[in-house]
Design brief:
single chain; 2 strands; 59% helix; mainly alpha; rod-shaped; 15 helices
């Protein structure tokens, strides 16, 4: 209900003069920063909205490709229908006398001509032009200058619509094939981009060199790790680690990034070293620094951990 109310209110504001666009506005309601929430009441709402925003941004290239292909399909179908209409009008014109009268007659008979062409060709009614507008355009034309139907060209268009365009459409990635986390990782790696957060200079707003070049203090987090009750393999599960991570009040999207960085072997569990990395990343974030794109090598080396990418 909160989500619907917020979107409705924002949508009304956008519709009545704020954005001034004919499209229905998609409004995202959230707290778009990566610091801890000051109030947890709307946490789920904000996180859902933030996830929707990034997924919609991610889908822009795919959506643009699909719109272009659909536009090409629409234009091709309209051009094909137009060719049949022009050819029919051309064939109905007399060879010598009465051309002007016949042309006026054909314009008056356009509704019947459209029905005749539709029955003969099977073209959809929606592909035919608006009769009133088309009639006005035809009044300024000389039907004798129209071209006859080019059957080889029509066949080429039909082949394109039947085989070539579907083949191109099948090459466009589908929604479920898009890896959202991989996309966001790549976005964060784009040097100079608005979402780039790997500033490791002493003068940047991101993580400082001192923090990145210092070993992770495992002993600082040892007691908390043991209090979670690690299993026989010496690891805690994601469920066990979830509560202490959420206690930080960092957004879930930030915690996901931290988990993906800290779970070095990608087994969905944490040993004490991985847990220490996660807690250290949370500490860094809570102190107002940006997260690194990858776990610093000095951390891995100090903990005798081999990078999962190096293993592969």
């Amino acid at each position: 209900n909160q989500l619907l109310t917020s979107r409705l209110s924002s949508g009304i504001n956008a519709e009545y003069g704020v954005l001034g666009t004919p499209e229905v506005a998609r409004v995202y309601c959230g707290s778009f920063w990566d610091q801890p929430y000051q109030n947890d009441d709307n946490r789920k709402l904000f996180e859902a909205e933030e996830e929707d925003l990034f997924k919609d941004i991610q889908d822009i290239p795919r959506g643009a490709i699909i719109r272009k292909l659909n536009d090409l399909i629409k234009r091709s179908r309209l051009a094909k229908t137009h060719a049949y209409i022009i050819s029919h009008l051309k064939n109905e014109m007399p060879a010598v006398f009465g051309k002007e009268a016949k042309q006026k007659q054909l314009i008056q008979q356009l509704p019947a001509i459209f029905e005749q062409i539709q029955r003969a060709t099977g073209l959809p009614a929606g592909d035919f032009p608006n009769i009133a507008e088309f009639s006005e355009t035809l009044k300024t034309c000389d039907f004798n200058s129209f071209k006859k139907l080019n059957l080889p060209l029509i066949e080429a268009v039909e082949k394109m619509l039947a085989t070539e365009l579907p083949r191109l459409m099948s090459q466009v990635p589908q929604d479920q094939e898009v890896a959202h986390e991989d996309f966001m990782k790549n976005v964060r790696k784009r040097d100079g981009g608005a979402l780039y957060d790997d500033d490791v200079t002493p003068f940047g707003m991101g993580t400082t060199l001192d923090l990145l070049n210092s070993p992770v203090p495992v002993k600082l987090y040892q007691h908390e790790f043991e209090s979670l009750g690690p299993g026989e393999d010496g690891k805690v599960t994601g469920t066990q680690a979830k509560k202490p991570m959420q206690d930080s009040k960092l957004p879930n999207t930030t915690l996901k990034r931290i988990w993906n960085l800290g779970d070095i072997d990608k087994d969905g569990k944490l040993d004490v070293r991985e847990f220490a990395i996660i807690k250290h990343l949370m500490k860094i974030k809570l102190e107002g620094h940006e997260l690194p794109v990858t776990v610093p090598k000095v951390w891995l080396e100090s903990l005798n951990i081999e990078d999962s990418e190096t293993k592969r």
